[in-house]
Amino acid sequence: MTPLTLTDIRILDPESGRDETGHIRIEDGRIAALGNVAVRGDVLAGRGLTCAPGLIDARVKAGEPGQENRETLASAARAALAGGVTQIVVQPQTEPIIDDMSLVDFIMRKGESLDIDVHVAGALTKGLDGRTMTEIGLMSEAGAVLFASGPNPVEDAGIMRRLMAYSATFNALISNSPVTPSLSDGSCAHESDVAARLGLPAAPAVSERIMAERDMALAELTGGRLLLDLISSAETADSVRRFKRRDIDVAASVSINHLALNELDIGDYRTFAKLDPPLREERDRQALLRAVEDGTIDIIVSDHDPQSAGRKRLPYAEATPGAVGLELLLPVGLKLAAEEELDLMAFLRAVTVAPADLLGLEGGRLREGAPADLVLFDATEPWVLDSERLLSRSKNTPFDGRRMTGRVRHTFKDGRIVYSAV
Amino acid sequence: MTPFEGYEFSKRHCLDISDFHRADIENLLALGAHYADLDVQKHGPRDVLAGKTLVNLFFENSTRTEKSFELAGRRLGADVISMQIASSSVKKGETLLDTAATLNAMNPDLLVVRHGQSGAPSLLAQKVSCSVINAGDGTHAHPTQALLDALTLRQAFDGDFSGIRIAICGDILHSRVARSNVQLLNMLGAEVRLIGPPTLIPTDADQWGVDVFHDMKDGLAGCDAIMMLRLQLERMSGSFVPSQREYFHFYGLDRSKLAYAKDGAVVLHPGPINRGVEISSGVADDPDISLITQQVAAGVAMRMAILHALAEGIQ
Fold this sequence. Notes:
The complex is a heterodimer of chains A (422) and B (315). Chain A has 422 residues and is of the alpha/beta class. Chain A is 30% helix and 25% strand.
């Protein structure tokens, strides 16, 4: 394979903190050298562009198997690459649910033919029933990188304790939805004056904090590795910060939607902004942004959740929550950075090296010897999002028609260009 | 003549290993070894318990332990009766203390009790006037099983426990056998290890004077003996472990895992065994490795020794 040099490019590496203009030379699918290095082989002029590690999106619903009309692994891969995402972790809530090593194997085999790395989050409980432990050890051996509770939390604290203790043997990372069902069941919005005005059944943000604190306390008790899946409130972020200070092995994720939107974005019942957890108040959003910057929140995910229009165009309470996000994770992050709401390096850390470290994956960094999984973007290019042009099979996004700043130009996987903007 | 000559066994009950001093244990094991001789067992003196009444009081089902005590009692000349409590008065609402009063009225000399609640034999012992032997209470203790395991090991290792490394593997959390064995083997100078998934090991088990492992490869390294425990299959649905398949893959003893232990390591199991769940047939049935049959034989001998020792106290 002929070497390729990307020249005069802004190099942003969140692992080392490197932010400089220089060249990156790629040989045999890996980064051979970067910085002030000799140009060799083919050349891609990168002046005006920024290079970051390919993004790792740790929360993607794929639809395959079972709901291919919403998304297939192949269509998800195309959408991912268009968004600069080179590794994805698919969630277990497929049909059937990924709760067995043969299904882990099935997804991973499917992924092998694609231009991205497909990783699997296995179900934490059988059929996501919240009670029966899955074969965490065997699924880990089969390659699962995470064990997730799906949309519903493991409600029984005793079972959660055993899940955490058992998974600790395999150093397996487990995630639970921080929701207290007795407070949240039947609700579809954040409890506030907005929801009250709209007359929507709402749940208080404390529903999230209670379950998050319970699980962090269990992580302390058992020594298990916990990922708090999709936190959304200021108070939960404070709790995580407090537990982290005590050196408890806990990590937290947030969706890009919750960093960019707040409850007002549901307007008068705009179901495309109906998400789970619900969008919260502006003060929550600001707290989440600060929590990403200070490392309290480890990773940012797209929470890609393709839904057909038919499941969205319904009365608010009946509409299915969720939004597509693979193509928007980076652009929305760049928009937040351009508007100086979020430090660019902190954002990139949370979508590259941090998920790589958390999930034990190669990639997510720009250094010699690392896989040449890269994204080249123009950090200032203005454009307007037209959801019909998204490559995902489903088009449900609250950002439709929004003005964006920053756009992907090329995505590289293992040194090959696998996506270029038209 | 018995090995008890010159030693006065003064204990009235056998409720827990911690009731005994090392000298008691050594003498009990010596007496057990004496009765392990089938000739002594079958044709020895039948008058040790002559005129004494042994009552088997089993609130939980058990075949081998109950029959083992029955046989031991009969071989020492006792009158043995078995009360099937599981299907009788308790079902009709009788409390444990009511049962004790009933028993007192019958005046037995020795009472063998198995009960689902930890501490039940100990409570009975306070309320009855005879000797009480704990044949397993809840998840607390099973001292006679520990003693028969020790007798089996004593025979395998020529009576010397010092420096012997023994791994107890499996469902430690629910095992009274493990608790009693840890106490007894520690007392005898063996190095004891516990191996199992964290969900099946009690919190703070590392404070029992043992090393705790969650990985068979690390835990079995250099072990002379491996004591496998029965995985209660009903635990599978309680989210303690995911499945029989996964449990066997990581914690079941087969020849490949046995290879981590010392060459010539022996394997014990209190029975009944679940083949393919905690132990493979290839290991369980290999007479060069498995001491499972010897454990059953040692059971009768050891229980004769215990009954004998307590009878000395009665006299």
